[in-house]
């Protein structure tokens, strides 16, 4: 089943961060996630000591910026570990900044 990207970042992830704030802060980074194409958007995800929060847009100051097409985001969300590497090496997941932090993003999707 396809994930509703808007709902995920505008409702589900903020709710999960509110519920699991301490676990989220252990990730310890600020992410900029840009999803291109249908149903995509831009979100700034702060899971550092000053977070946790998710806001729409691109305010700057991210430690790690990831850009992916909406159809590829579906694969990334389903299995971040396996599909994340495959998308990265296929050039479909672009990562700027601290690339090691990209590996930690899967922890964000585990918070429910």
TrEMBL record:
Residues 19-110 form the SCP2 domain. InterPro entries: SCP2_sterol-bd_dom, SCP2_sterol-bd_dom_sf. GO terms for cellular component: cytosol. This is Putative sterol carrier protein. It comes from the Bacteria.
């Amino acid at each position: 089943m396809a994930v509703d990207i808007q709902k995920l970042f505008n409702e589900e992830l903020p709710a999960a961060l509110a519920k699991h704030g301490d676990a989220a802060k252990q990730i310890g980074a600020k992410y900029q996630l840009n999803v291109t194409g249908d149903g995509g958007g831009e979100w700034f995800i702060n899971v550092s000591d000053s977070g946790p929060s998710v806001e729409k847009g691109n305010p700057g100051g991210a430690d790690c910026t990831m850009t992916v097409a909406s159809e590829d985001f579906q694969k990334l969300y389903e299995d971040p570990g396996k599909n994340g590497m495959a998308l990265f090496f296929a050039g479909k997941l672009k990562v700027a900044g601290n690339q090691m932090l990209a590996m930690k993003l899967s922890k964000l999707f585990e918070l429910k």
